[in-house]
Amino acid sequence: MSIGHTLLGLLESGPRHGYDLKRGYDERFGHDRPLHYGQVYATLSRLLKSGLVEVDGVTPGDGPDRKRYAITAAGVTDVEQWLAQPERPELYLQSGLYTKLVIALLTGRPAADILDRQRAEHLTAMRALTRRKLDGDLADQLVCDHALFHLEADLRFLETAAARLDALAAEIKEARP
What we know:
The protein is mainly alpha-helical. Helices cover 67% and strands 8% of the residues. A hairpin with a 6-residue loop joins strand 2 (53-59) and strand 3. The protein is elongated, with a radius of gyration of 23 Å.
C-alpha cells in the first residue's frame, strides 16, 4: 500500500494537519500497523517537494508551527492515476512453507508434522479474524474477509500438499545423487 497515495486520498476531503492525517489513516487503515508521526511528516515533505500537496496554512504553537496541508490539482491527478492501476497479484511461487517441506523431506524429517503445525496456526488466525470481524465496522469486516479468503486458500494448499507429500518425497529421494 502506498502511504503517500493514501494520505493524498485523505486530503481530497479537505485540508488537514499531519496529526489529523495520522489519525484518519490509523482509523481506516492502521488497525494492525498504525503510522508513526515521522512517517506522516516525511511523506508529507516528499509530497510537498513533488508538488502534490501545498501548505494551506500555518498555526503557531508552543513547539514548531503547525502546518495544514491541502492536495493540489497535480495531487488529485496522481491519486486518479494510482486508483486506475490494478494491484499486482501476490504470487507465492516460492513460499517459506514450500521450502520447509522440501528441506524436511531432504533431511528425512516428518514433513506432515510441518503441515499439521501450519494448519493449526492458520486455524488460530482464522478464529481471531472471525471474532474481530464480528465486532468490526463494515470496513474492518472487509479487511478481515480479505485475510480470511487468503487463509482459506492457504488451507486448500495445505490439504493438496498433504495429499501429494508421498509423491513429492519419492521424487526428491529419486533425484538425490
